[in-house]
Design a protein that fits this description.
single chain; alpha+beta; 5-stranded antiparallel sheet
Length: 258
């Protein structure tokens, strides 16, 4: 959205994430679900790849043999979510060019199969490479975890962070699946969507539609053990970026009703 999108920097969502981490501790980590904009997430993608309709934002990465995803991090764990198929390839994990693990994605068809808590060789910052071998692999999410401890609350944040996207661009069911949250686990979702519903020329909606979309997300994420906090989008500098359809206060009032 206008001047507030982005993974890093002085945007409102990153401030919220940082404040939670400062207050609660634990491992607040980035989950990457939009592979169409790797630079924004400090990823390097090489080889023959393409963006396919899969995952929480329908921007998963189709990796072909010898293609790679790399990044620099001091991660304790690197977690992947993939779509398993009967002819899936394998993924090799390298730390500073040393192979430390290989996983196979071959098997019965399973959307959002997880390879969770993949330990890394070192907590010292280094270069990680994930290489596709043998056959294609569809990578739907990548988490870089830091300071993972079993007895500490866990936080993750998923950011689409691309101009002109909104509620309709996220798959609600897939969004829940990709976070690995089950209905029998106490969880808190902080839902921070809706900026472009108010201010985008291409994605704006009426306050009524905005309220309906918000209700749908809350319904999809809610369970008896789940709490949801909705963070209302900030008001823009409306002299430069005015609301497209209705005044900001109309969306605010709808959000309060939801």
């Amino acid at each position: 959205g206008y001047y507030i999108a982005g993974v890093n920097g002085d945007n409102w969502f990153t401030k919220l994430k940082n404040n939670i981490q400062n207050v609660k501790g634990g491992d607040s980590y980035l989950g990457i679900i939009n592979f169409s904009d790797p630079t924004r997430y400090s990823l390097t993608i090489t080889g023959s790849t393409s963006i396919v309709t899969a995952g929480a934002i329908n921007k998963a990465l189709l990796m072909t043999p010898n293609s790679e995803v790399s990044f620099t991090s001091a991660s304790n764990f690197v977690d992947l979510w993939i779509d398993k198929v009967s002819t899936g390839g394998s993924l090799e994990f390298y730390y500073n060019n040393v192979l430390y693990r290989t996983i196979s994605t071959d098997g019965a068809v399973t959307n959002f199969a997880t390879y969770d808590k993949t330990p890394t060789p070192s907590t010292v910052s280094g270069t990680y490479r994930i290489k596709c071998v043998g056959a294609n692999v569809v990578l739907t999410s990548l988490f870089k975890k830091v300071n993972f401890e079993n007895d500490v609350d866990k936080y993750s944040y998923l950011m689409n962070a691309v101009t002109s996207t909104s509620f309709v661009d996220f798959n609600k069911t897939n969004l829940r699946a990709i976070t690995g949250i089950s209905s029998n686990r106490s969880s808190l979702y902080v839902l921070a969507l809706g900026v472009n519903s108010i201010y985008s020329a291409s994605k704006n909606t009426t306050p009524t539609v905005y309220g309906t979309q918000l209700k749908e997300y809350i319904k999809a994420l809610r369970s008896e053990n789940t709490d949801i906090v909705y963070v209302m989008p900030p008001r823009s500098t409306e002299v430069s970026f005015p609301p497209i359809t209705s005044p900001y206060i109309d969306y605010f009032n709808i959000a309060k009703q939801v």
